[in-house]
Task: structure prediction
Amino acid sequence: MTNSLRIIPLGGLGEIGKNMTLYEVGRHILVVDAGTMFPANDMLGIDLVLPDWGYLRDKADRVVAIVITHGHEDHLGAIPYLLKDLNLKAPIYGTRLVQGLLDKKLKDAGLHKPCPQVEVEDGERFVVGPFDVEVIAINHSIPDGVALAIRTPVGTVLHTGDFKFDYTPVHGSAPDFGRLAALGREGVMVLLADSTGAERPGWTPSEATLVPVFDQIFRQAPGRIIVSTFASLLSRVQQIVDVAHAHKRRVALAGYSMVENVKTAQKLGYLNVPRGALVDLDKVKELSPDKVVIVTTGAQGQPEAALARIASGRHKEIEIIPGDTVILSAQPIPGNEKMVSQMINRLIRRGAEVLYPPVSPVHVSGHASQEELKLLLSLVRPEYFVPVHGELRHLHAHARLAQAVGIPGEYVLTVENGTVLEFDEAGASIGERIPGGYVFVAGTGVGDVGPSVLRDRETLAAYGFVAVVVPWDFAQRALRGQPEIVSRGFVYEKESGELMTAARELVVQTLQETSRVSKRGLEEAIRQALGRYFYDQTGRKPMIVPIILE
Result:
C-alpha cells in the first residue's frame, strides 16, 4: 500500500555503529546507510560487526536506492558486504567524498562497478520510486556530511545522519539552517536525529578550536609527535598537516586506512597538502625527531591498528623513544574504554608523553550536544520524533530533550533495532519486531560465527579446555586401553598430577557404570562427571571435549 510508510532501523539504535535504516512504501524500499561496528571486548576473534539485513534477503529486487549520509565506516563500511550478499543492483547516492571512499572499498572487495553510483551535493533533490529525497548540508567530523529530507506519500521524514552545528567548520559550509527552518514550516511528519551527544550539556565546540591547541603542543614538543585519530576524520588530518607545516615538521602516515583515505581525499580535493609536507614512513628515521609528525590510526585501542602495535612494540617501523609526544585525538567509543586505557599505559611505560581527553582538549566531538539538539527540534518542529544513533541511554536522554521542547511523550518513539514503525493517515504505531542483531565478520567468514561460538570462546578464554580421549569397543562395551586427558588453559598438567590421575579414574568408573550405549551418550556421561568433579575441586568450569575412538 502506498498510503503507509514503514521505517525499519536495522542498526545504530541501542549501540554505537553499524547504522542502517530502511524506508518502505508499498513494494519500494529505500536504504539509508549501511555501516560496520567495532567488536565489543567479549566478541573474541571478531573483526567487524555488520547489521542483520536478513529482512531484505527475499526483497532485494524491491530496493530502489541506497543513500549514504557521510563517509564514516559506521555508515559506509558494510556496503561491499551488502552488495555481495544480496547481489544488489540498486543505485548508490552519495556526495563526492562518499563516492571516492566507496570506490576504494569496492575495489578492495573485488567488486568492479557492481551498481550505478550517483554523485549528489547539498541542495540537490532526486526521486527514486515513491521517495523524493533532498540533500541538506550539515556538519560532522568528516567533510560532506548531509541530512536527508525524504518526502513520501504519507509525509516528510528528516533523517539527520551524524551531525553537529559548526559555525566555523574546517571544511565546507555552515549548516543550512534556512532549509531546516523551511522544512519545519512545510511540515515534518517524523524526525530521526543523532543521539550520541544527548547526555552532554551545552554546545559542541567547533573543529576550529583545535588549531590553537595543536599549535601550542607542536611548539613545545621536544621530539616526535604521533597523532592518532580516525582515518576518515579528514578535517582533523587537514588541521594536523597545516599546523605541522607551520612549525616546519614533515608528516608521515601510518596505517593502511589512513594512507588510503588521505590519497583519496587529496585526489578529490578534500585535503590541501603543501608540496613536500608528506614524507614516507620509512624515511622518518632520517629526520631530526623535532621535525617529525606521524599521523596514525588506532585511537580506539584496536589491537591490530597501528597505534596499539606501537604501544606494544610490535610495529615494524615505529618504536617509542623518550621525548615522543603521543596525541589521542578521539574520544573512546563506549565499550572501548578499557582497551584505550591499556594502550595509554603501555605508551607511557615506553617513555611517551601522552595527551588525551580529558587530560588535554585535543579532541572535539562530531556530534551535537543538548543545546544543538534542542535547536534542531525547535527549527523542525516534527509531529513525531525517533531518537537514533546511540546506546539506549543516549536514546532516552534525547527523548527527554524532545519532550522538554514540547513534543508530547506519546509522539516520541524510542525503539531499538528491528522494531518496525508504521505511519499512515491515522498516525504512527509500533509494528512487529524483525531480526536486528549482529552479523559477525571473522577473517574471510561472514555470518559463520554466531552467539553459540562466541559463548564457547568465552568459556575457553575464562577456563580453558580439557580433552578426554577414550579408546572404546562398542561390540564389547568396554575400554580398549586407558583414557588420555589433555588440558590447555585449565591447569598446568605437570603440577596437577593428582587432579588428572583422579580424573582418569573417574572416567573409567563412569564408563563402567553408565547404561548409555551410543557414542553421544558416552560423551555426555563423561562431560557431566568431569564437569562436576573439576568444579568441586577447582571452582572452575573448563570446556570438556570427550573423543571416543572406536
Notes: The CA atoms of residues 223 and 323 lie 5 Å apart. The chain has 14 helices and 26 strands.
